[in-house]
Amino acid sequence: MADRYLSITGTAPGRFLTRRLGLPQPAPLERHSLSGGLLHLTAGETDLDLAPVLARTGLGPDDAGHPAAVVLDATGVRDVDSLAGVHAALHPVVRSVATSGRVVVLGAPLDPADHHQAAAQQALEGFTRSLGKEIGRGRTVNLVRLTDAHAAESTLRFLLSPASAYVSGQVIEVSAANGTAAAPDDWELPLAGRTALVTGAARGIGAAVAGTLAGQGAHVVVLDVPQAEEEARKAAERLGGTALALDITAADAGGRIAAALPGGLDVLVHNAGVTRDRRLVNMPAERWTSVLDVNLASVLRTTDALLAAGAVNRGGRIVATASIAGLAGNAGQTNYGASKAGIVGLVRSLAPRALAGHGVTVNAVAPGFIETRMTAAVPLFIREAGRRMNSLAQGGLPVDVAETTAWLAHPASGAVNGQVVRVCGQSLLGA
User: pLDDT tens digit string along 183-199?
Assistant: First the structure.
């Protein structure tokens, strides 16, 4: 369903009226190209070898005074006094960042042996999230904690690109200790020669994920329930992929997937999910069980089976779908919130062990309000609240979740592990 409010505020009368009434004034998000160059700033002393990586992002130096992106290297901030450098660097330029521009702050891991450094670096998180909520005009602000710029190249490319239009206010940790992968031969087709399986891929967000991965060169296996077999087959044909009709909650689902893919998987995306909303006092056991089984238990069973069978190739990527409902809670969704919070627990626990034992990273995306057929059926006022209650004052699109998933699935994203990244426009709830 079209966001009519966004269309109205794009007109001169709409801007005047919403300004007079103090209503949100969302800017249409740029998802195709960023207009302008890149401004590289520093706060504190740094030895981060950042320039070669930034040169490869495709954004040239800012010459016009209206940068499309600003990168602030604050890895050298070690105490409260040096935090003044953050203000000094960004205060003069924030106003000039282009509409739909990007601000990326780079921080260092917190040093457990130096509480002054830890306090100063933790301060960057509050700073970044606050700036994201006030910067406006479709601009995003994120914090990346890192020690090696080259290990973070895929992350910086993503956050400095149109693909991250609905990702803001996030803190992402990139650790070279997780291991890194060589840059792909072609950054436009990084998944060429790789096989990706997406569950619940016949429609909605799953279909967008499948399409994005295929667009990056992957052979995509479109998995959905037998009832959606025809849709899955058509989707697979459009993408040059393969359809697999399968009930993901079946006890033998993992074994059947492994048998269907003798060459193994390089990317496994757990997207299938259901909602059965009702307040707990009115929720029968069947509604609870069905949601937990599809959204969480099937993910656990299938992942365990595929890893045990060696069906996820070394260097592989597992990306699960959480939700901000699992992070902040949502009335009428105790079952859904529980299932999606469980995904977060799965990621945080499994990520280090899967990497050590199988050479596979495990991460999650946590969508907020995304414009789908499901959210189009939500009552008007609840739908409008979902759209406006984030820093970008609008709903996201399935492609926003898909692009974030593709970044986590990227062969050069090996240093990103155990992360839960919200794709929610910096929701005012839980983000």
Answer: 898 999 999 999 999 99
What would the two tokens of residue 388 be? Answer: 């406006």
d(CA 390, CA 169): 10
Could you give phi then psi for residue 58, rounded to 5 degrees? 95, -10
171/420 Cα distance (integer angstroms): 9
What's the pTM value of the predicted model, to 2 decimals? 0.96
What distance in Å separates the CA atoms of residue 316 and residue 196, rounded to the nearest whole number? 10
End-to-end CA distance of the chain: 25
**What gap in Å lies between CA 247 and CA 268, rounded to an integer?**
16
Name the band, by pLDDT with cuts 50, 70 and 90, for residue 430.
low
CA distance 409 to 197: 11
What percent of the chain clears pLDDT 70, i.e. is strictly above it?
99
What mean pLDDT comes out for the span 133-153? 96
Enumerate the H helices of 107-261 as residue ranges. Answer: 115-134, 153-159, 204-215, 229-239, 253-260
Q: Which residues are known to be catalytic? A: 336
- Give the count of alpha carbons within 13 A of 24, CB side only: 23
pLDDT of residue 174: 97
